[in-house]
Write a structure and sequence with these properties.
The chain is mostly helical. The chain is built from 8 helices and no strands.
């Protein structure tokens, strides 16, 4: 009952990451170190800000959206619970997308994949522990996803802090450059909306599927 709603929010964050990747790669390729540094720092706050925005929207409107999609009464409580917990990990997802975009822009695609794979393994292990051992059911699956997202975010943030090539994120001198914000949004938001439009269209399919019994919906 929840994937399309999640994909809608995640798609926006992925699009922003794409915008960061394009701009960072441009400055790195042109050897514009100052612009690259400004992009690294500014994009962090832009991505993190959108991550928190998506999180708050998810927490406050989860039940309402599921009701609009005609989610079954016997499913909506658990679906809403799962969604509200899952969105707590969106700020971490935004940070991972940010770090992945920057490292990929300078040619390092290996570490983001390693971090994501490691977090994925942790997710599977925690799923088994929370559901089988602690009997947490839907909440266990959701919390496993949240924890794994923060693990991947911490790993990639640490990698950016250590620096790579011509850039390094300096926590002592964080700043936001409005011209860089505009460039990131100009590229990232359309890309994010393009990603999300598929999930938005699929919500209409979900609406139709929800007219069947709960077992059919699950299938």
């Amino acid at each position: 009952s929840t994937p399309q709603v999640i994909f809608f929010m995640v798609g926006i964050l992925q699009g922003l990451g794409g915008g960061v990747n394009v701009i960072a790669a441009y400055h790195a390729g042109a050897n514009q170190k100052k612009d690259l540094e400004e992009t690294v720092k500014t994009s962090f706050f832009v991505c993190l800000g959108f991550g928190f925005l998506m999180m708050f929207l998810g927490v406050f409107f989860a039940t309402g959206v599921l009701e609009l999609l005609k989610t079954k009464e016997e499913l909506i409580e658990l679906a809403s619970c799962y969604l509200k917990i899952y969105v707590l990990g969106l700020p971490a997802g935004a940070v991972y997308n940010w770090g992945n975009a920057l490292l990929s822009a300078v040619g390092d695609t290996k570490r983001p994949l390693i971090y994501l794979s490691f977090a994925g393994i942790i997710n599977v292990v925690l799923n088994l522990i929370f559901v089988i051992v602690f009997k947490m059911d839907v909440k266990g699956v959701a919390w496993a996803s949240v924890i794994s997202q923060y693990i991947s975010a911490i790993l990639i943030f640490a990698a950016v802090l250590r620096g790579y090539g011509d850039f390094k994120f300096d926590l002592k001198h964080p700043f936001v450059k409005m011209n860089k914000v505009q460039r990131i949004l100009k590229i990232g938001l359309p890309a994010g909306l393009q990603n999300s439009i598929f999930a938005f269209a699929n919500m209409f399919i979900q609406y139709g599927v929800n007219s069947f019994d709960s077992m059919t919906v699950a299938g």
